[in-house]
Amino acid sequence: MAKRTQADEAGRPEDERLGIGKSFTYGIQHVLTMYGGIIAPPLIIGGAAGVPPAEIGLLVASCLFIGGLATILQSYGVPFFGSRLPLVQGTSFAGVATMTAIVADGGLPAVFGAVIVSTLLGLLITPVFSRLVKYFPPVVTGTVITVIGLSLMPVAAQWAMGNDTKAADFGSVSDIGLAALTLTIVLMLSKVAVPAISRLSILLSIVVGTVLAALLGKADFSAVGDGAIFAIPTPFAFGAPTFDVAAIVSMFIVVLVTLTETTADILAVGEIVGTRVGKRRIGDGLRADMASSAIAPVFNGFTQSAFAQNVGLVAITGVRSRFVVTAGGVILLVLGMLPVLGRVVATIPYPVLGGAGLVLFGTVAASGIKTLSKVDYDGNMNLVVVAASLGLGMVPIAAPDFYHHFPAWVGTIFHSGISAAALMAVVLNLVFNHLKPGKAGTDPSVFATATRVIDYSDLKAFSQLENGDKIVDGQIVDADGKPVPVRDADGRPVHYRIGSEPDGH
User: TM segments (predicted)?
Assistant: First the structure.
């Protein structure tokens, strides 16, 4: 691998230094954006393991601690590890269901052992993934980015409703109203002409929303003083890891999904930042992902991956500096050692997070749509690539139990709309745009010409001709010089020549 030089990094937007004050201010915004997501997996897994509340608190602190280390490694980077992009790392949701199943049989030590071995295997295969960048053109990345945003919408909706489905007031008008108020504050602050305020619109709206929630009796700060103020996660606090082959195999499938999602996130943030992302940076990013995941169980943590909601924060704020994210990693590290600060952040009501999340996650989807607008859909199968991939990606969102009766490995891969859409988009792009068996596509599928087809039955009345159409060598071409297909009422091609009748189908 060639040595990275200073000239290679000069002028990259992600290398902008904003100063310590601004970096930590924007870094707090990143932490607040992903805090709910990073603490949810340890709460779920710890609850499934039946550990007492104090030990669940230890799991939460451990995940914050290792998330900080992983974020610093990913954003700041060391040789061969770290994409050096503004990517926030944290405990991945992709493996929660699998780890919950493992913990039921072997407890937390079996989960930690499976994570260690599977992520070390993932580390070994990262060179393969880093060479797949040519199979991620805009038609693939745009589709995946769009699905990332759309797949996060149920999370924002659940937060807006209070998050606890068993609570008596889940989905109450007051909770949804608080979320709507927070959303309104985000939009109003984004309109302010002062750049510092508009860029901090998410953070400020969360602060204002929390204050308003406290006035309405919806924020409880009473538990902030409970528990230890300072605590460093103890290595292997839940016992030495155990190694079960079945658990390792199931977690390795999760690792493949995580690698796919992280590749998509690296490409997504590269597109948003406006910087070049090649196979080398992808490889470095994936190695950081897997290395931090392998170390995580030592400090009682789980698999790490990039957080898609923070990709949205980069898009909406326009703050592209990776050092801002590094500052966020330092904050996470401190939160992991100071549980009292974590308890302060934990007082933010979920409806407040939900209101801000609607904008964040919607921005991710909008970024994907913007990327898809750059795709050429004429004379190829890109339209069906997007259509099928979006459709498959939306299935687990529209019907969460869709794969309930399938083998566990099927659910692990396809229950994530992001990984399902990514796999479908990559495969279809490979089949339609890279593999070209047989005769070249002079008469492609109807999907390839869905943007414009002339119906021969109306042609003689000139009802379907447009400005710029002309006749070249007896054939109709548009203003860009591209042939315009002519088809009969049954959709079959008509080889039309001016001055003659159709010469066949």
Answer: 32-50, 56-73, 85-104, 110-129, 136-161, 167-189, 196-216, 236-259, 323-342, 348-369, 381-400, 406-432
